[in-house]
């Protein structure tokens, strides 16, 4: 009885929160305008067609490579490779699509000379920025959910568990949320959509490709084998973990590696070269926490920028 009451209270509070968020007039305006036109459905169709085409190419490439090598690839390996390829392509597409919906969200209003009209309403800056972000994220989440059936094709081959699908969705959603918020921040900071888009994509591409290059250069200079003490090796592992936890592809790869080899999605023991053991955390946990914190930071900066322009 008590459990039913608490479950009912949680459901009611969740509905109230969703109703409060989507009662935002900016969210309703943006979603109605986006879903009434053909652009939203064209983007969704092209997105799924690209994912489907690349998935087919990955499957054909695996089959051809196994035939030419004269070996035999297990069905589980096909499923894992297909799933990893779909997630990688999905991550790349999200990295380009998510900022595209937000980098012109506020600067576009200025260019169309509708920004001052919107700001004469009683809507506070926080609700205005939140409405722009929620409307973009709602569509991005639709793209992520629409791609889950393509990821689930790997279940026919095996080698992939439901946990991997859930973790991949969390990583993709956190990536889309941060990249969308970065776009909102630069859109609030810039008067032109072009400059906002350039700064947004420069930031997101640095996160996607620049950070792995920096880490690779550091690891070329300092190797784990060159570290003599256990404390030094543990410190280097912590440094590498922090850098890798800022990069979505590296986080996804390492999370899958930990899941397959350590059989856990949480903490696990790692043996150093000296034989000592240290406790490490699966990369998706610090990644998600870090991206949520950065999302709050960029959102707060965007709200302050909008509020400052009103004064």
How would you describe this protein?
The protein is mostly helical. The chain has one domain. The protein is 80% helix and 3% strand. The protein has 13 helices and two strands. It has helices at 2-22, 25-36, 39-69, 75-102, 107-111, 115-119, 125-152, 154-157, 162-189, 193-221, 230-244, 248-262, 284-310; strands at residues 267-271, 277-281. A two-stranded antiparallel sheet has the order 1-2. A hairpin with a 5-residue loop joins strand 1 and strand 2 (277-281). Helix 2 (25-36) packs across helix 7 (125-152). It starts with a helix and ends with a helix. The mean pLDDT is 81.
Set down the secondary structure blueprint.
Layout: H1 2-22, H2 25-36, H3 39-69, H4 75-102, H5 107-111, H6 115-119, H7 125-152, H8 154-157, H9 162-189, H10 193-221, H11 230-244, H12 248-262, E1 267-271, E2 277-281, H13 284-310
Antiparallel strand pairs: 1-2
Helix pairs in contact: 2-7, 3-4, 3-7, 4-7, 4-9, 4-10, 7-9, 7-13, 9-10, 9-12, 9-13
């Amino acid at each position: 009885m008590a459990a039913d009451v608490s479950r009912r209270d949680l459901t009611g509070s969740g509905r109230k929160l969703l109703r409060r968020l989507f009662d935002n007039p900016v969210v309703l305006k943006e979603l109605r305008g986006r879903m009434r036109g053909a652009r939203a459905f064209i983007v969704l169709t092209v997105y799924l067609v690209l994912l489907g085409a690349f998935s087919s190419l990955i499957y054909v490439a695996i089959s051809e490579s196994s035939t030419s090598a004269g070996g035999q690839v297990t069905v589980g390996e096909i499923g894992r490779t297909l799933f990893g390829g779909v997630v990688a392509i999905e991550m790349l597409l999200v990295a380009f699509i998510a900022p595209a919906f937000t980098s012109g969200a506020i600067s576009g209003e200025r260019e169309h000379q509708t920004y001052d009209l919107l700001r004469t309403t009683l809507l506070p800056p926080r609700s205005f920025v939140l409405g722009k972000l929620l409307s973009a994220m709602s569509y991005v989440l639709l793209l992520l959910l629409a791609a889950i059936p393509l990821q689930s094709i790997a279940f026919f081959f095996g080698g992939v568990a439901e946990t991997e699908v859930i973790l991949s969705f969390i990583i993709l959603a956190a990536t889309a949320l941060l990249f969308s918020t970065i776009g909102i921040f630069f859109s609030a900071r810039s008067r032109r959509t072009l400059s906002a888009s350039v700064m947004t994509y420069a930031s997101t591409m640095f996160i996607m490709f620049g950070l792995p290059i920096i880490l690779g250069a550091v690891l070329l200079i300092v190797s784990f084998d060159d570290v003599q003490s256990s404390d030094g090796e543990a410190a280097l592992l912590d440094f590498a973990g922090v850098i890798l936890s800022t990069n979505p592809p590296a986080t996804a790869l390492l999370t899958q590696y930990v899941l397959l080899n350590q059989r856990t999605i949480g903490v696990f023991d790692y043996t150093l070269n000296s034989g000592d053991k240290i406790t490490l955390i699966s990369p998706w946990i610090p990644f998600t926490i870090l991206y949520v914190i950065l999302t709050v930071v960029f959102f707060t900066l965007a709200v302050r920028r909008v509020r400052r322009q009103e004064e």
